[in-house]
Amino acid sequence: MDKLAAEEIYYEMIRGRAFEYAAKEHYMQGDISGFLHLDIGQEGLSVAAIKAFEKGDVFSTYREHIMAMARGISPKAVMAELFGKAAGVSEGKGGSMHLFDPSHFFYGGDAIVGGHIPNAVGCAYARKYQNNFDGVMVVFGDGATNGGAFFESLNIAAAQKLPLLFLCENNRYAIGTEITRVAPFEKQSHKAEPYMPALEVDGMDAVAVYKVIKDAQAYIQKGHGPIFVEAMTCRYEGHSMSDANRYRSAQEMALCKARDPIERMKRVLTERFGMDEDAIGALEAKAQQEVDEAVAFAAQASEPAPEALYTHIFVEGGSHALS
Ligand SMILES: Cc1ncc(C[n+]2csc(CCOP(=O)(O)OP(=O)(O)O)c2C)c(N)n1
Ligand SMILES: [Mg+2]
Fold first, then answer.
1. φ, ψ dihedrals at 248, nearest 5°
2. What ligand has the least distance to the C-alpha of 61?
3. 307: in domain
4. Does any domain span residue 257?
5. What is the mean pLDDT of each run of 10 residues along the chain (323 residues)?
6. Alpha-carbon distance 91 to 211, whole Å?
């Protein structure tokens, strides 16, 4: 990774964390309703994976604000979506879990755990049919790997040699359920091993994530078929805003935070690329300003018009094949 990429990734990580704290605050103030799942602690994984997967299509879970922004969707459009405003990326009708923008080849956000994995398989099938091997990346949690759709997807992706990158964000919890209570092993990559190459990476290390995803995309682009990457990570907050996070001890949380991805990336910038504290401070100020502007934008934006209730329900005219 060169200095430019490292700086960009660090910037988007700190902007992501500031964004998530702002979303939390505005949720508590009642500006945001519905569900809200924060990605604090997992920023390095979200940003580096998306930046590394340069071309191609992305399908994600509901913990996707930072990934959507890393794909190029503006913080204003994401925050406005959280506020339920018409200027939101899904026109205010999707909310936090359904950030959807085909112009950025970013197809959500899905509220159904693992429900988006078969959708990504379908997209990968279409891309192969179109002779396009940039690939599809599908991001899901450790909990999602216990569902039937996940295994069916591994099977068909391998049988059809589809250009599909499975990225498992293993934060060891599905809401309050610790992974070994519902799976026979900690590493979910074991489930993929019979079907395809399965790699592991430290999800708290953005530089390592960037490299492994670049390599995985190169593998797909050669037409070898699917590949699986498991990134071990840690979320700092509760599962969603209604989870007080009481099932993890203070000691477990301290161990998590000792691996903080932002502090780690900051050390890459200072020690490897010689950036000084002033330059880093300027990035932090800029990130906070961008988030403040996104909140101000979302707060003053208009609600969707009542007629919007009747659109985006059925396919309206024309072909909706992937472009
Ligand atoms: C099919 C389905 N079952 C259950 C739920 C309720 N639910 C929402 S999130 C979640 C946990 C998923 O955990 P994981 O896949 O590890 O993702 P994480 O939240 O840790 O990122 C559950 C069980 C759901 N949304 N969909
Ligand atoms: Mg999980």
1. -115, 135
2. 1
3. no
4. yes
5. 96 98 98 97 98 97 98 98 98 97 95 97 97 97 97 98 98 97 96 98 98 98 97 97 95 97 98 96 98 98 95 75 64
6. 35
> 144 C-alpha vs ligand 1 centroid, how far in Å?
7
From 97, 113, 247, the mutation candidate for ligand 1 (largest count of ligand atoms within 8 A of CB) is 113
| AA letter at 145 | T
Beta-bridge mates of residue 45? none
CA of 33 to the centre of ligand 1 (A): 19
* Total domain count, the chain: 1
Domain span including residue 10: 3-294
pTM of the full structure: 0.97
pLDDT of residue 321: 60
Longest dimension (CA), the chain: 56
Residue 66 lies in a domain: yes
Instruction: Specify the amino acid at residue 228.
Output: F
Q: 137 phi and psi, to 5 degrees?
A: -110, 130
pLDDT of residue 287: 98
CA distance 96 to 79: 9
The ligand that comes nearest to the alpha carbon of residue 145 is 1
Q: Find the residues whose C-beta lies inside 6 A of ligand 1.
A: 61, 63, 111-113, 140-144, 169, 171, 173-175, 239
* CATH number, position 147: 3.40.50.970
- Ligand nearest to the CA of residue 174, numbered in listed order: 1
